[in-house]
Amino acid sequence: MIPRPNFSNAASSYYLHNARRYNSSYNLQDGLRKFMRCVPQPAVIITTCCSENHKIRRGITVSSFNTLSMAEHPLVSFNVQLPSRFAELLRQSSKFIVNFPRACREHAALAHTFSIAGFKIEERIGDLFESAKWSATKFGPLALTDALGRLHCEVVERIPVEDHELIIGRVKSIYDLSEDADEDALIYAHRNYCALGEKL
Q: Domain 40-192, CATH 3.90.700.10 — does that match?
């Protein structure tokens, strides 16, 4: 258990009075964005493909991935900003693979590339798959061969939320490719891809 800091009354008063407060809708958006930068998030690359032609494929890096339910048939979720060619293809396919990059420079660069694909180089998405270590799967979407692990999932629900779409998927199979029980997956914080720090 992490010990609770023992703040004096003076220190507590200082932190309370110097905390930044955001009220208006603009400030709330800006404040939340700034605050969340210091909260580490998972960095996964999610792939999908056309069910009739697997050569039509898309990939996207997301930091919103999370487990939703650990029931007998687990559920996971992530969201995508609209409009999105990835989301359009996923509506047709319904299958996707969650690839967990390793905490290394090579995978950090790959995650960055897929994070900007939808904005700058979406039309060359095929080249991105060819330049990395991608493997075909019977499930359909391509898999990152040397990933820490991956989840094969099927969409069960899509929920529109403002300018995003929340996607909920059911996990069909899990591939644990980690070489060490203590090996870390890639994370994202402070606008950078990172590895976990020391234990507290």
A: no
